Amino acid sequence: MMRKKMNKSLIGLFCLSIILLGNCVSSHGLMEISTGTTYELKISKGMTSLQVKSYDETKWKATVSSTSLPNSSFDGDANIVNARNKVIINAWFDNGTTAWEGFTQFILPYTTVMALSIFGTKAGGNLIKFNESVVNGNYTSQPLSWEVTANEWYYNNTEFYETSNNPMKVFPIFKTPSNYKILMDDYNNWSNTMNKDPGFAFTGLPALPNYTADEFLWLMIERGMIIASPNKQYLTGLTSGLGCSTNVVVSETGLSITKTGIASYVVEVTFKEDGIISSFVFKDLSGNILYNLELDNSNLVIIYIMIGVGLGIFILPIILQIRSKKKRK
Amino acid sequence: MQKSTEKLSEKSLEKSSEESNDTTTLGIKPMLYTIVFEMKKNRKKFYVFSIMVILLNVLQIVLTMIPEFGIASTQTGYISSGLSFMSMLMVFGVCFFFGGIICSEFSTHTGYITFPKLNKYKLIVGKYIGNLILFIGVIALYYFIIALQAIYFYGAPLNIRFYYSFFMAVFYILAISSFVTMISSFMRSIPMAVISSLLILMMVFGIVDQIVVMLNPDFEPIYSIEYMSRLITSVLAKDFPVGADRYTEFNMRGFSFRMWNTPSIEVGITVLLIYMSVCFTLAALFFKRRQL
Questions:
Q1: For the whole model, what pTM was predicted?
Q2: Crossing angle (nearest 10°) for helices B120-154 and A2-25
Q3: What is the pLDDT of residues B28-56, one digit of tens each?
Q4: Cα A113–A114–A119 angle (5° rounding)?
Q5: Distance (Å, rounded) from C-alpha A228 to C-alpha B244?
Q6: Which helix (H) or strand (E) holds A55?
Q7: What is the rounded distance in angstroms from the CA atom of residue B35 to the CA atom of residue A219?
Q8: Nearest CA to A208 among A221, A223, A219?
Q9: Among B132-136, B252-256, B272-276, where is mean pLDDT lowest?
Q10: Is A159 exposed, middle or buried (0-12, 13-18, 19+ CB in 10 A)?
């Protein structure tokens, strides 16, 4: 009798552990952090992958641009249908984002940062003043944020390499969405100053771009923006804080941006509940899809199959044994 | 009368053919029964260690839920960090599963029972294989859960070096189980065998390694079975360390210390094979002497 009870309790503990493990591994609601403000960060560590579902090159060249193809906005082989990218969120830190971090980790491309850094050193001739203390000394705002660190693999239609293309991807998520304007204004101010610097002219580097509100929003989207929850309120605060034009419309699922290339077209960006982008759809004004990126969930299917097989291998013998014991009795 | 003798001869012919069939299956069937019996007998150890494995993995998952606790940037890096408890679990598990293989027969006085159809050596081999299957099942469960996590966080497919690590883990189990079986062959009781094996594998080898390395930093402790366990995680590295990358040097107050990180794969496999062959041979010899 005691032995039977012990067996049952052992099996129960085993099954409970499996269920707990399953709950822990499920992606929805894995981690919620209460911020003390109205917004919450609902992301979880791990992989997200977008896949190129469709691409009509003819219509793209006729509507968006004949020279700038999708791989101008999305790194890698984003022109190829079925190509996928991969972003693995490693960690996030409750911090403030300094101007230096915002400029070098988020706004400026890596190659530009490296080039500016070299010209700011003795070896580069000290042509410009580009270092952390100078930038943070001039732009002292440090809005509170969650700094998300990630590894990024660019779009690829073959197997991913073991090491990522961008191991130092950082995305700041401001706790007050209107604070993105502070970063944008500080950057525009700094880039204007830098472009007028005689030392910068000697570097031979192209002029640093200035961003309007709509352009800055698009830059954030290209960088793979993550938002806090509730999504619609955060996006509304973000777009109104930046001062976006009427071309940007916030919906329940995300954003709709009307842009003009060769002709006008609309980009619909949708977000998952955890604040990560789940799809991009480029459409012309007639509703024809020019380019479509969607979330790739094939990973979850593999995990569910593995869990099913694993449960079968490990739990089935236990169930069979209990049944055979009952039959003997 | 003639009919009865014919029947008797037919019966004796049938019996002798049955006996000749029995001799051909003597080596396999009784051993299979022993394996199954041993697996059933030790199933509770299997359940306990399986639960421990699940709890260890749950603990790791809980740690990854802390936002600032960053996960590794590659799949193999994550697997390597997940296997950090592996060698300790293996040592404990092997000692508990294999500690009583031989000495239990003597402590319970069952070693003197003559079995009509089963060779005593085959009984021990059957017990060994039964426990080996159970414990490899525990390790396979550990690797399976790590694989699930790796695919969840980093995407499929699993890196091939994951399978190399599993192969090394099984090889290591074979080596330390042979060592524990050897200990069991001359110990008087199961607790003594388990405790002695644990002490030697967890402490003695480690202490001896440190003394040897302090006395002669150039000397790689390839005699140490504990040192061979490093291969389980080092095979996961993209570029397996070679030459001077296999150790880290420290200088302190004029003394130079060398911490060996991993053996080379060839040396590791060779040493483990030597441990297996020597320990199994010694175990058989000790067991035979005890029989006499």
A1: 0.82
A2: 30
A3: 888 888 899 999 899 899 999 999 999 99
A4: 100
A5: 48
A6: strand A50-55
A7: 65
A8: A219
A9: B252-256
A10: exposed
| Predicted confidence (pLDDT) per residue in B184-213, tens digit | 998 888 899 999 999 999 899 989 988 888
CA B22 to chain CA centroid, nearest Å: 33
Task: Assign A285 to helix, strand or coil.
Answer: coil
Q: Which pLDDT belongs to residue A3?
A: 63
CB atoms within 10 A of CB A156: 17
- Chain A hits for B72, CB-CB cut-off 8 Å, are 90
Any A CB within 8 A of B81 CB? no
Tokens standing for residue A130:
């580009």
Residue B143 vs residue A5, higher pLDDT? B143
Residue type for position B77: G
Token pair, residue B25, equals 């299956």
Q: Does B109 touch chain A (CB under 8 A)?
A: no
A21 interaction partners in chain B (CB closer than 8 Å): 54, 57-58, 61, 145
Q: How many CB atoms lie within 10 A of CB B193?
A: 27
Which phi and psi angles does B73 have, rounded to 5°?
A: -85, -15
